[in-house]
Design the sequence.
């Protein structure tokens, strides 16, 4: 008989989940406590001395003095300091020596970003965020038997692209560091083993994952939807199974994040038929674990306000405005998010935009990247609009998409401007014209600016879809120079420039 440890740990996790009930009317208090704590810890670092953290703390209003003293920064503003940290210098952006760095990127052909992962950020944020995800899931599912089996966690690997000679310094996917630093107890309830999970060569790693995971009793899976789907299909093929119920009869939840789940939802529902399956979204980035879906009936995520991150926001419709603190955001507005955290990021501009769905407590939806939009004709199409429009068009036409990106085509001669979509299909629609009409209609419903520009085909023509050959996006990710197969794969969905799509169209020939 299979031993179920869920009843033994449920009380602890429920306590973690229910602490969020105490957040009501305490957002400002909790957030200011985090900021003051960070300023105290880092007061003797290089950045603490440069900006006078001790003076900020001794002022009458530390938050007010903090935002007056420190500028907001993009990654390029701190790249030099981070590279010095990688080379072993300590007490620069955070106390002590940092030996773990998450390699991340957001633009085609751009330089990789290397983000510090300090021991404080691991213990105070990343692992705590993972606990929150499990806690809210168990709190909402009293019949769960999650700990009667193992969790299949799909992660990336380390890569020495900087010529690092110190064997104690690791650079790679965030997930690789999380797996490498995980507690021995967690190793007992997860698959694959650490050695397999950190294999760098995916041509060897993928079959090893399939072989090892197929032999385990898996109850939960965690990873990026697009890449995990590839792995799960291989597992079905390996086991000659139609659905995952035939492989893992106890599978009950997928903790997913990194990209929108909507374009992949129908495929996951198909391969999990016969299971009482749940899907829980997380906002877990290289920079930190920020939010978790705490209510299965609500697609908005609860912003985690007490896990070592201090938040600020810039209104998307007023980018020149000074950032505002979390306790001043308004429901219904979309903001660019900034963080101050225990990984040494101070007033750091993530490049992510979020829509505030509610306040007190704050719940959000990821709207996209600050650079991931199309506004060539005043249409202001955001990534969230695109994801939702694509998902609905696929649902109505029985289509399934593996990957896509879109960019504007500017008016030339007698031709009107339009949006060009490059799409790699799992299952293409039977009628492409009808699919385009549905996508266009959904985008018009979701975005009033897009609808206005499409009115009467005067300013903006209907979208165009170009079919991508199989494997194109994976090939592009490799040639982009800063993405690795199986890591945190993030294809920019929308771009206001044609640079990336032109490169891909050339590859598609």
Sequence:
């Amino acid at each position: 008989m299979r031993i179920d440890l869920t009843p033994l740990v449920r009380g602890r996790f429920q306590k973690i989940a229910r602490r969020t009930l105490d957040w009501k009317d305490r957002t400002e208090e909790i957030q200011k406590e985090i900021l003051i704590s960070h300023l105290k810890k880092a007061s003797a670092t290089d950045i603490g001395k440069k900006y006078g953290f001790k003076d900020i703390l001794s002022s009458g209003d530390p938050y007010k003095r903090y935002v007056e003293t420190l500028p907001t920064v993009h990654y390029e503003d701190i790249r030099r300091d981070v590279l010095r940290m990688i080379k072993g210098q300590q007490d620069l952006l955070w106390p002590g020596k940092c030996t773990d760095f998450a390699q991340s990127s957001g633009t085609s052909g751009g330089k990789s970003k290397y983000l510090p992962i300090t021991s404080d950020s691991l213990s105070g944020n990343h692992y705590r965020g993972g606990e929150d995800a499990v806690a809210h899931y168990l709190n909402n599912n009293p019949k769960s038997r999650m700990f009667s089996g193992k969790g299949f966690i799909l992660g990336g690997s380390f890569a020495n692209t900087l010529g690092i000679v110190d064997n104690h310094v690791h650079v790679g996917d965030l997930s690789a560091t999380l797996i490498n630093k995980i507690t021995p107890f967690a190793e007992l309830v997860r698959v694959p083993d650490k050695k397999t999970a950190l294999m760098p060569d995916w041509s060897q790693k993928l079959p090893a994952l399939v072989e090892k995971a197929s032999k385990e009793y898996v109850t939960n899976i965690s990873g990026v939807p697009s890449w995990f789907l590839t792995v799960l299909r291989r597992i079905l093929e390996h086991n000659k199974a139609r659905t995952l119920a035939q492989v893992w009869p106890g599978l009950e939840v997928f903790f997913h994040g990194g990209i929108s789940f909507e374009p992949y939802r129908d495929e996951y529902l198909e391969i999990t038929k016969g299971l009482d399956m749940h899907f829980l979204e997380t906002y877990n980035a290289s920079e930190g674990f920020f939010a978790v879906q705490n209510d299965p009936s609500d697609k908005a995520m609860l912003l985690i306000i007490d896990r070592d991150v201090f938040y600020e926001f810039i209104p998307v419709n007023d980018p020149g405005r000074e950032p505002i603190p979390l306790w001043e955001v308004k429901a219904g507005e979309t903001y660019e998010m900034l963080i101050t955290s225990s990984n040494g990021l101070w007033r750091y501009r993530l490049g992510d935009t979020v829509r505030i769905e509610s306040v007190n407590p704050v719940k959000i939806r990821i709207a996209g990247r600050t650079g991931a939009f199309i506004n060539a004709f005043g249409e202001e199409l955001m990534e969230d609009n695109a994801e939702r429009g694509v998902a609905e068009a696929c649902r109505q036409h029985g289509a399934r998409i593996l990957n896509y990106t879109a960019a504007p085509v500017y008016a030339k001669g007698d031709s009107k401007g339009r949006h060009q979509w490059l799409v790699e299909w799992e299952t293409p629609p039977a009628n492409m014209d009808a699919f385009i009409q549905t996508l266009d209609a959904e985008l018009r419903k979701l975005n009033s600016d897009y609808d206005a520009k499409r009115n009467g085909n005067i300013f903006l023509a209907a979208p165009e879809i170009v079919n991508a050959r199989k494997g194109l996006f994976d090939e592009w990710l490799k040639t982009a120079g800063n993405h690795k197969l199986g890591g945190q794969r993030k294809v920019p969905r929308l771009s206001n420039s044609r640079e990336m799509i032109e490169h891909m169209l050339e590859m598609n020939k």
